[in-house]
Amino acid sequence: MSATAVSVSSGRTGAPGRGARRGRGRFTARTALYVVLVLLAALIVLPLVWMLVTSFKTDADAIRNPYSLPSPLSVDAYRTLSGGQQPILLWLWNSLAAATIQTVLIVATASLGAYALARMEFAGKKVVFGLIVSTLLVPPVVFLIPNYLIVQNLGWLDTIFAITVPGAAGAFGIFFLRQFFVGLPVEIEEAARIDGAGDLRIFLQVVLPLARPALATLAVLSFLNNWNDFLWPVYVLLSPERMTLQPGLSMLQGAYRTHFAIVMAGAVIASVPVLLLFAIAQRQIVDSVTGAAVKG
């Protein structure tokens, strides 16, 4: 009887020890995860901080002490950019206009094409979808000369149409939205159809509101793709006043000398719209990613 009591008591005393060890193991794993995340965040944030700090230096200070705080604090770089020597505000406006127009076109064409491939039945649908997806495997530089010839024949060189229309029907947007539309419950659309709604009304008033997170994610990706594009505007934009921000910033670098503070100030200006866009659409992007994970 006493032996049984001893064994029971020893088993009871051993359980808290195992729980404590398990708790310490979870704490150690969580701490290690946080340390890794902090290090990754530092790797991402530090270049941005260095860019911002360098933009408030003089040219001599940026070359002499590239990794130190500005001493003295100078806004000469921003004053130079806003002084009219380089039309950076005009480049900024051109980039904003081009990225916004192309984003609207991509979301409109991709949503229509993706819904047709996801819900409608027609001959050769799988072949069409396969051809669209196969274009994702082709490097974009392959389309550089054909697109240039098309733009040239249409008389769109040195216009905003040259940097917005050619990329307005991308395969990625169709593929991305089709996968999202396929995951939507068909019963919702059937209920709307029973109530007398047509295909267009179902698409506009039922499907698109449900696909708001995916549309926001595609819009952000499309905006960033056009905003960061450097090669294509260099070929089709000929005059400085038509230039967008990315190729315009390259003009800030001289042949024999680079004004690092001015270049970094221009990079800071180019980063502000992107950061604001991500801050505004962050919730929609997270909802899109988590929704896709739940469906998977």
Please describe the topology of this protein.
Layout: H1 2-55, H2 59-64, H3 76-81, H4 88-119, H5 125-134, H6 144-154, H7 171-182, H8 186-194, H9 199-210, H10 212-227, H11 231-236, H12 245-250, H13 260-295
Report what the structure shows.
This protein is mainly alpha-helical and 296 residues long. It has two domains: 2-55; 85-295, MetI-like fold, CATH 1.10.3720.10. It has helices spanning 2-55, 59-64, 76-81, 88-119, 125-134, 144-154, 171-182, 186-194, 199-210, 212-227, 231-236, 245-250, 260-295. The N and C termini lie far apart (56 Å). The model is unreliable at 5-11 (pLDDT under 50).
Structure described in brief:
With 296 residues, the protein is mainly alpha-helical.
Radius of gyration over all CA atoms, rounded: 28 Å
Give helix and strand order, one letter per element, not per position.
HHHHHHHHHHHHH
Overall structural domain count: 2
Superfamily (CATH H level) name of the largest domain:
MetI-like
Any idea what the shape is?
flat
Instruction: Average the pLDDT over all residues and give the rounded result.
Output: 84
Strand content: under 5%
Which architecture of the largest domain per CATH?
A: Orthogonal Bundle
Give the helix level as a range of percent: over 70%
| Separation, N- and C-terminal Cα atoms | 56 Å
**What is the number of helical segments per DSSP (H or I, 4+ residues)?**
13
